[in-house]
Amino acid sequence: MQLPTTDTLELREEGFALHITLNRPESRNAMSLQMTQDLRAVFTAIENSEDIRVVVLRGANGHFCAGGDIKDMAGARMRAAESGNDDAYAELNRAFGHMLTQVDHAPQVVVALLEGAVLGGGFGLACVSDVAIALESAQFGLPETSLGIIPAQIAPFVLQRIGMTQARRLALLGGRFNGSEAARLGIVHQVVADTYVLDSALTQTLGQIRKCAPAANRNTKALLHRVGCEPLESLLDDAAKLFAHAVASPEGAEGTMAFVQKRPAKWAE
Predict the structure, then answer these.
(1) Do residue 184 and residue 70 come from a single domain?
(2) 60 and 151, same structural domain?
(3) Chain segment 154-209, per-residue pLDDT in tens
(4) What are the two backbone dihedrals, phi and then psi, of residue 52, each rounded to the nearest 5 degrees?
(5) Alpha-carbon gap, residue 95 to 104, rounded angstroms
(6) 89: alpha, beta or left, given left = phi > 0 and alpha = psi -120 to 50?
(7) pTM of the full structure
(8) Final residue in a domain of this structure, among 168, 191, 210
(9) Which domain holds residue 117?
(10) Based on the domain organization, do 183 and 222 belong to the same domain?
(11) Alpha helices (runs of H) in the chain, residue ranges in sequence order
């Protein structure tokens, strides 16, 4: 598998994990169009990889992502003025939504390590992770309405994460809150005191993921995404077939044998 060359990301493969660092520290890793495109290119490259089982997202220099890039918005404003319509704004905004959907549906387990600013677009990216671990001091928020704009591509993912009642409050007040409040709301799963403990929590999480069969994890994540989008009875019928296939698969046989023999499965070694 060949990873793409990127301008805004640092990529590091470590065993079964791909570490992606958002790397625009001069802007607190604000989400530019180029970063959006870089993330899409990376997730496209690893989509069918059996070697990469987890993706770790982090930001450079103590910040995750401070939201959308103001320079990109200014460029879109100039293009809109020249063309006489708002298509440039819509295209810029929609590109970010396509990226969120792609990360959300990635077959890998996506782990987000959240430090410093986790605002706007960064907040949205956190909401499409499978596992989110945050510093208590991290600052979360949806500041869009305070800037006279709306969290257009982010709002649906926030709602899926924490429900309508809390999503409305966060989006319509535009306030900021720390990691402990993010955990209370269900945005993150674990809150830690400092970066040392954050790294330790990541190590523990990767150890847990290693114990899970790769295909079983992929198929489980895909199944969970179908809940609420299809009629329940037909979904359960299909799930039963997927279960039968998993039991009869080499993974199922290995998992059962490892359990009986009281040893780690081969994928956990």
Answers:
(1) yes
(2) yes
(3) 999 999 999 999 999 999 999 999 999 999 999 999 999 999 999 999 999 999 99
(4) -90, 110
(5) 14
(6) alpha
(7) 0.94
(8) 210
(9) 9-210
(10) no
(11) 33-46, 70-83, 87-104, 121-127, 155-162, 164-173, 179-185, 195-210, 214-226, 232-248, 250-260
